[in-house]
Specification:
Rossmann fold; about 20% strand; disordered N terminus; single chain; alpha/beta
């Protein structure tokens, strides 16, 4: 795969909180709780044996494939995903499968702190450059708006709210998209929480996909 990277690289959206830890003005108690939950879940996730994580990822991809079969490919709609980071499910093979189905694939690009993500189209032949933290991103092309946004989950709750890495990029992005879009959270079933203590700026996922199956929150 052209531009493939060693597992462990982050998508730019995943880690920008490390340079912006004060994002969003969360109440101190909520910020502290989320930080603790994030650290605990990341420690659990990264400690998973590689083979176990790979098996869970295969089941997640199977769930996404089943969902993809229900989507209309008219007009070659755009789907976005991410590069795997800290034990996230690796969805790059799924993106390739989506391209084969007639979709177009996109990758997120950090434009600036406090701004929504931008997206550029990607195929295995797309020239890549190094973005934030030297992460490969499409080197050129117009920005596009995905119809399906797949967001990685550190944690999640039954209402579909997502615990991410703390930068708020996916919340800003989903709020800013102007066209119809489907927001899908992808993560591991063991990372479900009773609540993430959602705030007014938090945007719930329409669907959650784990190795245990797909659910529609609410």
């Amino acid at each position: 795969m052209n531009g493939d990277v060693t597992p462990g690289y982050a998508s730019p959206a995943c880690a920008l909180h490390e340079t912006d830890p004060a994002y969003s003005g969360l109440p101190p108690d909520v910020a502290a709780w989320r930080r603790g939950a994030r650290e605990r879940l990341l420690a659990w996730r990264t400690a998973l044996p590689i083979a176990e994580r790979a098996g869970m990822t295969e089941r997640i991809v199977a769930g996404l494939e089943a969902l993809a079969a229900t989507l209309n490919t008219a007009g070659a709609p755009i789907v976005s995903a991410y590069w795997p980071f800290r034990g996230e499910p690796d969805l790059r093979p799924w993106l390739l499968a989506m391209i084969a189905r007639g979709f177009r694939a996109a990758l997120p690009i950090v434009v600036a702190k406090g701004a929504p993500l931008a997206f550029r189209l990607w195929t295995p032949e797309t020239p890549l450059t190094r973005g934030v933290w030297d992460i490969p991103i499409p080197a050129e092309g117009e920005y596009v708006e995905p119809a399906v946004v797949v967001a990685p989950l550190v944690g999640f709750d039954a209402a579909g709210y997502r615990l991410g890495y703390g930068g708020g990029f996916y919340d800003r992005t989903l709020a800013a998209l102007t066209g119809p879009r489907l927001a899908i959270g992808v993560g591991y079933a063991a990372c479900e929480l009773a609540t993430i203590h959602p705030q007014p700026h938090d945007v719930p996922m329409a669907l959650i996909v784990t190795e245990g199956g797909m659910r529609s929150p609410g």
